[in-house]
């Protein structure tokens, strides 16, 4: 299949002709949410002229490694604390409320059914794009939602599906690194929003 790239400026022009609300969805375990998630979301929001970004925490990720995720209520509350000062960031509980394994195709179908007034954009890092062909029903998924790839160093920007590629500052920050720092008793100041850091301390999360 031919490699297809949609330039962000073209997507913005198309979006301006559309009367539907443009909503980016950013899924993940968010265990915990950190500044790289927020920067990525804000860059996509700005460069594609979206109306909102919805953070969708998963219930059980499809891959084998569940990352030792803490209870959903804690992950959801940390997202809420992280985005509380940004009016175009929202949290959506579709995957947690549905339960079971969180397959993106199921989530997108449910969102489209519940919100026909929205056009949805699936936000993915460059590492996820390279593995997209191995997701559940990738061809059907690509037909239901616009795919947004955030460029990442070290990953070839090739995909058999139409991708809107977006440049964003790359930050080598991961939830795994943050958990390891916390388990070792080290500071995560500036790696997570202050409200998230305070919540982690108050609830005694990630103490090992």
UniProtKB/TrEMBL annotation:
Pathway: Cofactor biosynthesis; NAD(+) biosynthesis; deamido-NAD(+) from nicotinate D-ribonucleotide: step 1/1. It comes from the Bacteria. The keyword Nucleotide-binding applies. Keywords: ATP-binding, NAD, Nucleotide-binding, Nucleotidyltransferase, Pyridine nucleotide biosynthesis, Transferase. InterPro entries: Cyt_trans-like, NadD/NMNAT, Rossmann-like_a/b/a_fold. GO terms for biological process: NAD+ biosynthetic process. The keyword Aminoacyl-tRNA synthetase does not apply. One of its GO terms (molecular function) is nicotinate-nucleotide adenylyltransferase activity. Its EC number is 2.7.7.18. Pfam families: CTP_transf_like. Residues 25-180 form the Cytidyltransferase-like domain. It catalyses: nicotinate beta-D-ribonucleotide + ATP + H(+) = deamido-NAD(+) + diphosphate. Coiled coil: none annotated. Catalyzes the reversible adenylation of nicotinate mononucleotide (NaMN) to nicotinic acid adenine dinucleotide (NaAD). Belongs to the NadD family. PANTHER family: NICOTINATE-NUCLEOTIDE ADENYLYLTRANSFERASE-RELATED, PHOSPHOPANTETHEINE ADENYLYLTRANSFERASE. This is Probable nicotinate-nucleotide adenylyltransferase. It comes from Amylolactobacillus amylotrophicus DSM 20534. The gene is nadD.
């Amino acid at each position: 299949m031919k490699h297809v790239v949609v330039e962000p400026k073209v997507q913005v022009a198309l979006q301006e002709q559309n009367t539907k609300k443009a909503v980016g969805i950013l899924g993940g375990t968010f265990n915990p949410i950190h500044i790289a998630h927020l920067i990525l979301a804000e860059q996509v929001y700005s460069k594609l002229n979206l109306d909102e970004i919805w953070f969708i925490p998963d219930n059980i990720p499809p891959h084998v490694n569940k990352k030792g995720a803490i209870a959903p209520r804690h992950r959801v509350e940390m997202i809420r604390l992280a985005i509380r000062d940004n009016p175009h960031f929202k949290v959506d509980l579709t995957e947690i409320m549905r339960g079971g394994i969180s397959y993106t195709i199921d989530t997108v179908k449910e969102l489209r059914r519940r919100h026909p007034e929205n056009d949805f954009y699936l936000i993915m890092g460059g590492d996820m794009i390279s593995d997209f062909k191995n997701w559940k029903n990738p061809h059907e998924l690509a037909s239901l939602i616009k795919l947004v790839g955030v460029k990442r160093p070290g990953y070839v920007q090739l995909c058999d599906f139409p991708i809107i590629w977006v440049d964003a500052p790359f930050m080598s920050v991961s939830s795994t690194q943050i958990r390891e720092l916390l388990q070792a008793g080290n500071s995560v100041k500036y790696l997570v929003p202050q409200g998230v850091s305070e919540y982690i301390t108050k609830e005694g999360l990630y103490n090992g």
